[in-house]
Every structure is written in structure tokens, then in C-alpha cells.
Amino acid sequence: MPRPLRDPQPLLDRAIHEWGGHEDLWVFGYGSLIWRPEFDFSERRSAHLHGWHRALKMWSRVNRGTPQCPGLVFGLLSGGSCRGMVFRIPQADGLETLGRLWLREMPTGVYDPRWLDCVTPHGRVRALAFTLSRRSPNFTGELSDARYREIFSSACGRYGTSLDYARLTFHELQRHGIHDAALARLVRLAEEEMSAGADCGAAPGGLYQTSHSSPPTNKQQENS
Predict the structure, then answer these.
(1) By the 8 A CB rule, do 27 and 98 touch?
(2) pLDDT tier at 108, thresholds 50, 70, 90
(3) 60 CB neighbour count, 10 Å cutoff
(4) Among candidates 144, 142, 139, which has minimal Cα distance to 73?
(5) Residue 134, by phi and psi: left (phi above 0), alpha (psi -120 to 50) or beta?
(6) How confident is the model at residue 214 (pLDDT cuts 50, 70, 90)?
(7) Residue 222: pLDDT above 50?
(8) Model confidence, pTM
């Protein structure tokens, strides 16, 4: 596990204080939380978040890559907008759920947790979202198409490849009627690379196959 960038406990304490504990807890999912939330919820809604966008621009050196060959996972960056899902957790389960989320998402303190207003078909909700600062050492900056191809073809961590992660998110977004043009382009880019390799007679690479490893537990972090 990489060394923590900062102590996550004060960030958890602040999130609990800002939530207050007097009402149900809402959490905004934009990546793996959509297809593997790992917590019980009483309601799930599609949601539109303004001022932030989903981007495959966060280095993963454990779960989807290694320190020598980093992979990619999603971060929520400022600017634009993002469609995802919000989950409602009953007030009585809020503290436990926040603790489990911190074990999963915040062991290294990489994210900036924020309470953001999300627009849903049944009104606005204030939900916890895990955002990424462009000043973070885990932010990739701009990546060329060639660099994305290289990462998709080589990066693999303990829970599978970066390509698997991107595809799982893409297909789950599609299942919920959410179109992400930027992600669709990246998945298409990777598939074109695979097709070109097949045309050249290359054997299918194991990194492109769906991972059969066991899913992470609540105490493991997808976005490492």
C-alpha cells in the first residue's frame, strides 16, 4: 500500500460533522461505486452534478497497476458536469457506512471529500462525493492517446486491468442510460488497438480478459 499522502481521520471527522447525523446520508457515485457500492442503501437515483466531471486521470499503483507500471482509475475533477448515481443510506447506518467508505476510498487520503448539490428526478440532494485535486500527485495531467493505449495494454493490478475497470464503468453507465462521450472514446481507442493486434496475428493478451479475481472487500480500496 502506498504511503498516505495525509492523515484521513481528520477528513472523516469533518465529513461526519458536516453531515450532522440527523438525517439520511447521500453518497454520489461516478465510477466503481456505481457497479460495486459495497454498502446497503435504501434508494438509488440517477443524478446530475454541475461543476465537476468524471475523468480517467488518477494513477493507480496497487489495484489497477503497479508502482513500476501505474494504471488508471477515475477522479472527479472540477469543471463541466457529470451524470452518475446517488445512494441514500438510512440515518441509523450513516456512521458505519462512512467508516467503511473511508477504509475503501481514503486509506491514503488522496481524495478531497465534498458535500455537493446533485440534481435528481425527485429533487436536489446534498451528497458526499470524492473529488480529486489537480495538485494531487495522483493526478495524471493530460495524457495522449498513445499513452492511454500503452496503459490499457500493460497496466494490471491486484484487481485486474485498467481496461477492465474502464469497461465495467462504461457498461454500467450505459445500463443506467448514462452516456459519457469521453469514456466511450477511450474504450473505443483501446478496442481499436486490440483489433489492430488481432489483425497482425498477435495472440490475445491476458490483460484484456475480464479479471476473475475475487472482488475487493469493504476494507480494501478500489481507487488505489
Answers:
(1) no
(2) confident
(3) 25
(4) 139
(5) alpha
(6) very low
(7) no
(8) 0.85
Single out the residue of 150, 157, 139 nearest to residue 189, CA to CA: 150
Q: Give the pLDDT score at 216.
A: 38
Question: Cell 497496466 appears where?
Answer: 155
Q: Residue with C-alpha cell 466511450?
A: 184
**Considering all CA atoms of the chain, what is the largest pairwise distance in Å, rounded to the nearest integer?**
61
Give the phi and the psi of residue 31 in degrees, each rounded to 5.
-135, -120
3-state SS of the chain is CCCCCCCHHHHHHHHHHHHCCCCCEEEEECCHHHHCCCCCCCEEEEEEEEEEEEEEEEEECCCCCCCCCCEEEEEEEEEEEEEEEEEEECHHHHHHHHHHHHHHHCCCCCCEEEEEEEEECCEEEEEEEEECCCCCCCECCCCCHHHHHHHHHHCEECCEEHHHHHHHHHHHHHHCCCCCHHHHHHHHHHHHHHHHHHHCCCCCCHHHCCCCCCCCCCCCCCCC
Is 178 in contact with 81 (CB distance < 8 Å)?
A: no
**Nearest CA among 49, 48, 72 for reference residue 59:** 72
Burial class (CB in 10 A: 0-12, 13-18, 19+), 122: exposed
- Among left, alpha and beta (phi > 0; psi -120 to 50; other), residue 22 is alpha
